[in-house]
Amino acid sequence: MTAPALSLKNLCKSFGPAKIINDVSLDIQKGERHAIIGPNGAGKSTLFNLISGLYTPTSGTVSLNGTLISGVPPYEINRMGLSRSFQVSNIFANMTVRENVRCGVLHSLGQGYSFWKSVTSSKEVQEKTYAVLEHCALLDKANTPAALLPYADQRALEIAITIAGGAEVILLDEPTAGMSHSETDRAVELIRKSTEGKTLVIVEHDMGVIFDLADRISVLVYGEIIASAPPSEIRGDPKVREAYLGDEALPEETV
Amino acid sequence: MSDTTQTYADIGPSSGAKFRQRFLPIAIFAAIILAIPMLDPSRTMLALMHQMAIYIVFALAYNMLLGKGGMLSFGHAVYFGLGGYFCMHAMNWIEEGGIWGAYPTFFLPLLGFLAGGVAAAVIGSFSTRRAGTTFAMISLGVAELIFAGAFMFDSLFGGEQGISGDRMNGPEVFGLTMGPQQDIYWFMAFWTILSVIAMYAFTRTPLGRLSEATRDNPQRVEFIGYNPTRVRWLVFTASGAFAGLAGGMSAVNYEIFTPEALSLIPSGFVLIMAYVGGITYFAGPIMGAILLTYMSSMLSDFTEAWLLYLGLMFVVIVMYAPRGIAGIVFGFWDGIRGSNPGAYLTNWLIRLFGSLLMLLGLIILVEVSVRWSNGWGEVFEPFGMHFPHESILTWIAIFVPLGAGAAILRHVTREKEEMAA
Amino acid sequence: METIVFALLNGVIYGLLLFMLSSGLTLIFSMMGVLNFAHASFYMLGAYFAYTIMGATSFWLALFIAPILVGLVGAVVERYGLRKVHANGHVAELLFTFGLAYLIEEVVKIVYGKTAVDYKIPDLLNFPAFTIYGASFPAYRMFMLFIAIGMLIGLWFLLKKTRAGLIIQAALTHPHMVGHLGHNVPLIFMTVFGIGCAMAGLAGVIAGNIFVTDPAMAVQMGPIVFVVVVVGGIGSLEGAFLASLLIGLIQNFAVGINASFAEIFWFTGLSPTSEIGDITISSLAPVMPFLILVLILIFRPRGLMGEQEL
Q1: Which terminal residue of chain C, N or C, has fewer Cβ atoms less than 10 Å from its own Cβ?
Q2: Residue B418 — pLDDT band, cuts 50, 70, 90?
């Protein structure tokens, strides 16, 4: 039996006396599309930070493909094949879109910390950058400074940098936050295309997106997972309805 | 499927643009340097230019850290000094003969590069773990420590007299005896052009790009698989190495090195140079180095308050022109080629006029104050005009231009904001 | 024996002086995120203003007026200088204060000259307070102790017992929230900056006449104050207090120890005439603070009592 792509065991995180994450255990299989939902303040971002190495757990473990990653620095976790995006666009504001993506591909193509050759000397780097830009429909904006991009394009760039390194496990933190309907649809398409065959863990508030994309949904409330099941079961779960203060939060089943 | 005729090369800058932006400026720079001797400059001018050359390399090295790496250091003269001191010792070893007797003085800056780099690698191993204010404070503490240490080890640092030497020893290269100023000019030209090319090339490498990425967003850098501390350490080492190279240039030029060169004063000076020049542009520190070297040697002949003017210029740039002189120059260049060059030029000239008015009032104020506080009864008398501090006319001459200039600037800035809106 | 007692007393006094400076710096940094590079320049201004006022009237008037003047200068600097640069980020603010320190030093040189001025201890306080083992301890130093403690108590009272202090404490950690509650945060910032500078000025008034009052005062005192703030833990007044006393005591004790490295490390066979062997503890005293700084930053970056790293 192969190890799950991501495995959280009895994960706890406290800040002083405040328990933010309380005994969370979760297994996410390879290739699975897993969504994490929950009311504001439930600890979703903290969970992401624990998985991606920004926080160390107070107790419990996080494993990637069977290898322990809790307590490992984020850049090593990234090299092991996990990449994440951020809720607030975390791009390189002073570089162009093209340079942003190019930075994203460097390490995966073995460029290392080299200072003896030009950054454009590798054909591989050039081609990979082009491919990612094309994939994310950012080609026409390739030479725009990232800081000047409209919001939805910044979020697309955020996703582009996240997938540029070719990681197998992708964590997306509210990728469609603040988008209009059509922008959201485009983003969902992009996410679906980019994570074919990869493991996706996504935090979202937009229920339409969740029920569209996810194979399984986990519901996080006050740092605990109260339910973890396929979308159809989550819809009917009374505990989940209660957590969201009423049925209107969950979309009706389309017949 | 994708358009097979378009490739990565098509979305990057065209080869024409690359030539204009990257190759041409450096070529022009080199051409100017090579052409200057044809104008037969005086010995004073040559000495001044040699000083500029040293500071150009030092300021560029410093900007690898500040502008390109986002690390503010208050003690970079340490690496300049350690590189320079090592070269002074090497100079003396060359004179003594033996194995060292075969090492040409011309290549001493290479040794400075090594010494500066090693020192930076060692100190950077703990100081680059954090960025920002912590890094700045460590650099301050280390600089104070090493400066104090320099006075404790006379054999290494020569105490207050420092270490001196003679550069006219060892084998000659390129037919240069390294004696007369003309020879030193070629020495400076060689190392300056080489350093500029090397440091520019660095910005085009993966490490150079990562350095800028780490400056902008160290968190994001971790999530593309790089350790930001490692990036900072490597950049710090490179920056220290080039500072040491500049130190070597200085050692050959002045044939002496004292502990003062390691102190906070040259460290602060290079910071001001780089910032005034403009840290976001590669050419910024070059402009800053040229301007400030000129000011510090020429201006001091005209007024005893030149350091005050320097400080004022720095504060004004920090407050009103944070992109430095390079920012002003390139901004002007862009504005002139923009949508409404006529209006832009008019606006710019009015602002220039307002600034000059204020400068006029300020100069009179400073010069009169200096003479007043000196108490020797000296009167400020530029170009035959008479400004005694007792006379009301003097104070009118101060406050009218100051006020008028400020009013013009305020009006024009508001107008520009309305234009842009 | 008297060496120990004197070192203790002098160490405490110097430490309290450092605290007068570092407490202001800590308040300013905690609240505004700005490490005021020019803080020691306000210390210098305090000494010079006091010298001028004392020359015209009396020391006691200077003691009262000079710090207020310095505080006003600080408030003006904040309102018209720092606030403008705030938008450009912390590095720009640090550079602004760096340029400011430069400027203040140059202006002082122009107005007062490049050499030290004769800022004297007032005759009223110029007598030995007590004698131990034949060595006398000046009354003026006891006065310094008295003033420093008084300021400490005043600060504590302001912060813990008054409404204004409560607001300042809140703004220390949550300036936005305090703004939303209707308080004029820019005014609070300006006030805190002014108070911090005034405290530095007061330190200058009482220290300027016992140490030298010259344009290099700021450059000598400044880095040590930074060391105190960083070693104590950025944002922690208690830490600054601890670090101030620690550094004050270490420096004053070190000055009294004439043992050389050759004597201490005799077991290594270090020759007393060699360069390393010749170094005495007392000669290391001026750089002790920086050694401590570097060590703390390597091993415990958040300082003695800081909650967060820089």
Answers
A1: N
A2: low
pLDDT higher than threshold 60 for residue C130: yes
Q: Does C102 touch chain B (CB under 8 A)?
A: yes
Domain count, chain C: 1
Cβ-defined contact of B207 to A133 (cutoff 8 Å)? no
How far is residue B41's CA from residue B32's CA, in Å, rounded to a whole number?
A: 13
- What is the least distance, in Å, from the CA of B201 to any CA of chain A? 8
If you measure CA to CA, which chain C residue comes closest to B146? C287
Confidence of residue C229 (pLDDT cuts 50, 70, 90): confident
pLDDT at A44 over 90: no
Name the DSSP class of A252.
P
C220 within some domain: no
How many C-beta atoms surround the C-beta of residue B40 within 10 A? Answer: 8
For residue C87, being part of any structural domain is answered with yes
pLDDT in tens, C7-61: 888 888 889 889 989 988 988 887 777 888 899 999 999 999 998 888 888 888 8
Q: What ranges in B12-42 are assigned the alpha helix state H?
A: 15-18, 24-35
Q: Does C61 touch chain B (CB under 8 A)?
A: no
User: Per-residue confidence at B60, pLDDT binned at 50, 70, 90?
Assistant: very high
For C117, the token pair is: 């001025």
Cβ contact, residue pair B140, C223, below 8 Å: yes
CA atoms within 13 A on the CB side of C257: 17
Strands lying side by side in the sheet with A6-15: A18-28, A6-15, A59-64, A67-68
- Asked whether the predicted pLDDT for residue C308 surpasses 70, the reply is no
Q: What CATH architecture does domain A6-246 belong to?
A: 3-Layer(aba) Sandwich (3.40)
pTM: 0.89
What is the four-CA torsion angle of B144, B150, B151, B155, rounded to 10 degrees? 170
Kindly state whether residue C299 falls inside one of the protein's structural domains. no
A91-119 burial by CB neighbour count: b if 16+ within 10 A, else e? bbebbbbbbbbbbbbbbbbebebbbeeeb
* pLDDT tens figures, C133-191: 667 777 788 888 888 888 888 888 887 888 777 877 777 667 677 777 777 778 888 88
pLDDT of A255 higher than 50: no
Kindly tell me whether chain C and chain B come into contact, counting contact as 3+ Cβ pairs under 8 Å.
yes
Sole residue written with tokens 């001191």: B85
B393 confidence band (pLDDT: 50, 70, 90): confident
Print the domain residue range for C47. Answer: 2-214
Residue with structure tokens 């005021």? Answer: C36
**Alpha-carbon gap: B280 to the closest alpha carbon of chain A (Å):** 10
Decide if C259 is inside a domain.
Answer: no
Given this model, what pLDDT does residue C90 score?
Answer: 77
User: 3-state SS of B166-226?
Assistant: CCCCCCCECCECCCCHHHHHHHHHHHHHHHHHHHHHHHCCHHHHHHHHHHHCHHHHHCCCC
Residue B174: Cβ-neighbour burial (10 angstroms; 0-12, 13-18, 19+) = exposed
Question: What is the rounded CA–CA span in Å between residue C181 and residue C179?
Answer: 5
